[in-house]
Design a protein that fits this description.
The chain is an alpha+beta fold and 211 residues long. The protein folds into 2 domains: 1-139, Alpha-Beta Complex (Homing Intron 3 (I-Ppo) Encoded Endonuclease, Chain A); 143-204, no CATH class. It has helices spanning 75-83, 115-124, 126-131, 165-175, 181-188, 201-204, and strands spanning 6-8, 16-19, 24-26, 29-35, 38-46, 49-50, 54-56, 59-66, 69-74, 91-95, 108-112. The protein has a 4-stranded antiparallel β-sheet, covered by helices on one side. It is globular and about 45 Å long.
Length: 211
């Protein structure tokens, strides 16, 4: 049986590590603890612990802390950045037969924004595609290519699913400058969580009437 491999979490070196099985752990570290009675909070040593992920649009997300700032990060992105390297231009993280919730390295690969690639990944698996990448012709423009012009492109999209008011307001501010806001809002009508087209969940999902 192959031993689980651990590497420093990109952007959080010395604070967290990520494994090839899709697990994240915090290291012994000096962390800033927020105290409602103290505006600046205080620092203390935090013991090493395994991080418990939550789900955002079906993908595991962990909340990591650095310099007193909390941020939600997709586990699959941490795994790919640590074990494969930086994301190539025009690529995204694609999942294999294990589905969205499987963030292990064996189920992941950077792939073009193409249905052909995604289908091949499910068929052949991430490890096979990393050994012999699939050649994909440039896809014809389609209804999903508005994402390439989105103002949030290149940002940590987990912030758009952070349910705190401060994070929600920051996401909405970015969306207001977005040239494809209408397309994003139309796409997000089917999504239960997150900010889409500058509109939070409470603005898209109608409240249930009391019986």
């Amino acid at each position: 049986m192959t031993a689980e491999r651990w590497l420093p979490a990109p952007g959080y070196e010395g604070l967290y590590e990520v494994s090839d099985l899709g697990r994240v752990r915090g290291l012994n570290r000096l962390g800033k603890i927020r105290d409602h009675k103290r505006a600046r909070g205080h620092e203390r040593w935090l013991r090493a612990q395994m991080m418990t992920p939550t789900l955002a649009t079906g993908y595991p997300v962990v909340k990591l802390t650095r310099n007193g700032s909390h941020r939600g990060v997709y586990v699959h992105e941490l795994v790919l950045l640590a074990f494969v390297g930086a994301r190539p231009p025009g690529h995204r993280a694609v999942h294999g037969p294990g589905g969205k919730q499987d963030a292990s390295l064996a189920n992941l690969a950077w792939g073009p924004r193409s249905d052909t690639w995604a289908d091949a990944l499910r068929r052949r698996g991430a490890q096979a595609l990393r050994r012999r990448p699939l050649t994909v012709a440039s896809p014809a423009p389609d209804a999903d290519h508005w994402r390439d012009s989105a103002a949030c492109r290149g940002n940590d999209t987990a912030a758009w699913f952070d349910r705190t008011r401060r994070a929600e307001a920051a996401a909405v501010a970015v969306c207001k400058q977005c040239p494809v806001r209408a397309q994003c809002l139309d796409y997000g009508k089917a999504e239960q969580w997150g900010v889409w087209g500058g509109v939070p969940r409470w603005g898209r999902v109608p409240r249930r009437k009391a019986a």
